[in-house]
Amino acid sequence: MRLVIVQKPFGLNMIPGGRAGIAFLHKLGALAPRKFVSNDERDTALEAYLRENKRKGIPNPLVSQCWLDAQYAAKVICSGPNRFPVETVRLIRSMDSEGADISEIAKAIGLTGDSRIKELLAGKTYSRVR
Known about the structure:
By secondary structure, the protein is mostly helical. Helix content is about 50%, strand content about 5%.
């Protein structure tokens, strides 16, 4: 199944390919009601819809709302490979506030380098994680 990108208010950013996508474009009013629509007509209608409904630079209201939640932000920021978990970020800050030097903090969390810790403590990374 081919997915086609559509920018639509309230978070929709893709439609299904094939007949399901054509049905969706009918719902949007991007295609006039007909029994059969060719793929070329679908692509032309989709391009026209995107030209007429530009959202570049306009924040998605549902995503914006999520990012206002500190727990959501921390979950996203701290997820993924090579990222500090929330608890580790808190431990690093706690040890720093208690006077531990960066090498002690690195040893405590099992990290061989200290550049990531320096960036965190300088507020360059993980600033939304509390």
